[in-house]
Design brief:
With about 675 residues, the chain is mainly β. Helices cover about 5% and strands about 30% of the residues. The strands form 14 sheets. It has a 5-stranded mixed β-sheet with strand order 19-25-21-22-23, with no helix packed on it.
Length: about 675
């Protein structure tokens, strides 16, 4: 039963936040301090309780609030972030006026970050060699107003993927307003099949009118049958064409790619041998030109194809270019070697067909470890050396060519290769194994380690091998180590088998080691145990549905709290105790959702916080009208009567349960 209505006369027609203040005051007067309400603009936020409202009021759920500043799709789900560091899933995104947001409760790492943008990770960067899925394909990336970029999973947990295990990195951008990865995240150079082949149309194909819908089967031609091709396959940059219409490589931010050949050796040749590089090419490009000293025109040369050669010095020399400009300082002047021109289709009357180029390699005769590099860029070049785009090139030589003490220098830092003790051996022909009479010389070498242990090795040219085998202590042997014993005719291979061994990452459960949700399966065939699954856990949420054995990897003095309300989660009445004096006395805490605890237990409120949202019109037209109401259930269980608040036009009885929204 409630007392007669009470009125507080005011006219909120033009100020929805005024209505929110009155709602908060009414709730605090009637239900405080058990339930408290705070009005912020047109919102009323409650610390607990269950709220039922009638239109045009609405109830929204949890989260740190803020403005929604980014929206992206990942694996068919829409996500958004807020300026207060909230991560939300969008429900019913395609419904007209029916979309809603669900706060991701586990996203506590993000609270307080002033997000201004969100994007899904690039799907193809650093692909898994087995699945082909990119390393960052299932991650979200957000950026704050100061230009700091964060990586986190769909549970809102920060991921240490940046340099030195950092979970965020400063992009150098100030006053950032958003984040967007390029839609191109792979090298467009690829080997073509023998003939045109059927593929599934992409979203870009649909936008270009090449296909009617994404996934449509289209026949892709990469000029395999054009005149002059002459081979079974080729390296193609781009996506081919469909029915004579090119599939574009005009991606946001442009496109570029390189392929580098394996090493080849010309040490057995001289310039007189006239070594020559031949290959066929087909260039259907922008077909423009520009000298290096030309001012930047409104439409500059962008589509650039070049071929280079280098040895292990890393100094790439230009062999050919499709830039035909020869005025001023041009590409044909920057190298002492002969540079060949590649002809675009219709360039100086070049036919629509494959062409062959012949490039002399006289200057490289006698050199070893040579490689070719083929570049294509839609920006006129690769811009190597620019710290804001490509950066400097760092290319390592094969380890067999690196000697102990070799160095490399980056800026003012010198890096030295240290391979420990290096033993330089003479060739077999230089070792005198027998004297002039044919008797064995028994040449030996002795190696002593820092502990004083020595091993003697003897050079022999006979099948009479020593029978002694030097062994090491067992702690130096690993499962799978092998050794071979031979009698000069046959060899017998032995493998160390230590049984079932599980090697744990050296970092354990710390960052960079075993991660929450990782697991393993053990099956002991000797006792036919069947598969026994184990899962590492630090948040109380079990990922496997196979009832795994849980291995706790939470930090010391960390309580794992499962989500309230889910199967196996925290429910009203659950308790825990903490001792501050090594077990002499305990303080008991009880999880509570109905405002009732046992004895002197300290209450831990697990009831969802709810928000009453006042419509933007307030008490004006299309806003709250007299006759509306909302109900708050104090204890959820209906042990206490529910409290009903009414919107009235006037309130002469001054009942705090009545909220005046008129007259207008």
């Amino acid at each position: 039963p409630f007392s007669p209505p009470y009125q507080t006369p005011f006219n909120p027609a033009f100020f929805p936040d005024t209505v929110a203040d009155k709602i908060a005051n009414a709730i605090n007067t009637t239900l405080g301090p058990t339930i408290t309400a705070v009005a912020t603009n047109q919102f009323v936020r409650l610390n607990q309780g269950s709220v039922t409202v009638s239109p045009p009021l609405s109830v929204v759920g949890e989260g740190p609030g803020g403005l929604l500043q980014g929206l992206t799709e990942l694996n068919g789900v829409l996500y958004t972030v807020s300026s207060n560091g909230g991560l939300y899933r969008i429900n019913n995104a395609g419904a007209v006026l029916g979309a809603s947001a669900t706060y991701v409760r586990t996203a506590t790492d993000l609270v307080g970050i002033n997000f201004v943008g969100l994007d899904a990770g690039p799907p193809n960067v650093e692909p898994d060699p087995v699945t082909g899925i990119g390393k960052y394909a299932n991650l979200l990336f957000g950026i704050d107003a100061n230009g700091r970029m964060y990586a986190f999973n769909t549970s809102g947990e920060l991921q240490p993927i940046f340099l030195d295990g950092q979970t965020s990195v400063d992009t150098g951008v100030t006053n950032a307003t958003g984040l967007q990865f390029s839609t191109l995240d792979q090298n467009l150079f690829h080997e073509t099949p023998l003939l045109p082949n059927f593929e599934s149309a992409t979203a870009m194909d649909v936008r270009l009118g090449i296909a009617q819908f994404e996934g449509q089967t289209i026949l892709v031609d990469r000029q395999q049958l054009a005149a002059g091709h002459g081979g079974r396959s080729s390296y193609h940059f781009g996506q081919g064409n469909v029915g004579g219409t090119p599939r574009t490589y005009d991606f946001p931010g442009g496109a570029h790619g390189s392929i580098v050949s394996n090493e080849f050796d010309l040490t057995g040749y001289t310039a007189a041998d006239r070594p020559v590089l031949y290959f066929n090419y087909y260039l259907e490009t922008q077909n423009d030109l520009a000298a290096l000293t030309d001012p930047v025109p409104p439409f500059p040369m962008l589509d650039a194809f070049r071929v280079f050669v280098s040895d292990d010095s890393g100094d790439w020399k230009l062999l050919g270019t499709n830039n035909s400009a020869r005025n001023g300082i041009n590409e044909y002047d920057i190298t002492p070697f002969e540079v060949q021109e590649f002809y675009d289709i219709n360039d100086n009357g070049a036919p629509d067909s494959w062409r062959q180029v012949r490039i002399p390699l006289d200057e490289y005769a006698g050199r070893e470890n040579l490689r070719l590099r083929f570049d294509f860029s839609t920006a006129g070049g690769m811009n190597v050396g620019d710290m804001f785009t490509t950066g400097d090139e760092l290319r390592a030589v094969a380890g067999v060519y690196i000697n102990d003490g070799d160095t490399l220098q980056i800026d003012n830092r010198t890096i030295e290769f240290d391979s420990g003790i290096t033993l330089v051996m003479p060739s077999a022909a230089a070792i005198p194994l027998r004297d002039a009479s044919g008797n064995p010389q028994r040449q030996t070498i002795t190696i002593t380690d820092r502990n004083g242990d020595s091993a003697k090795f003897e050079f022999v040219d006979t099948t009479d091998l020593p029978s002694d085998i030097r062994t090491v202590t067992g702690d130096l042997l690993l499962d799978g180590d092998v050794f071979t014993v031979g009698d000069g005719t046959t060899l017998q291979r032995f493998e160390i088998d230590t049984g079932l061994t599980l090697r744990v990452n050296a970092l354990g459960g710390a960052a960079g080691g075993v991660a929450n949700g990782d697991g393993f399966v053990i099956n002991n065939p000797l006792v036919n145990s069947g598969d026994v699954e184990f899962e590492f856990d630090k948040d109380g949420v079990i990922n496997s549905v196979n009832n795994p054995t849980i291995i706790n990897i939470a930090d010391d003095m960390t309580m794992l709290l499962p989500l309230a309300g889910v199967s196996g989660g925290i429910v009203d009445g659950n308790r825990f105790s903490i001792s501050a004096d090594n077990g002499l006395t305990f303080t008991t805490f009880e999880f509570d959702s109905n405002n009732s605890v046992v004895g002197t237990s300290e209450k831990v409120n697990i009831h969802d916080s709810l928000t009453i949202q006042v419509p933007a019109a307030g008490g004006g037209f299309n806003g709250i009208a007299a006759g509306g109401s909302f109900t708050i259930d104090d204890d959820v269980t209906d042990a206490l009567p529910r409290t009903v608040f009414n919107f009235v036009a006037s309130n002469p009885s001054a009942n705090p349960l009545n909220i005046v929204v008129g007259p207008f």
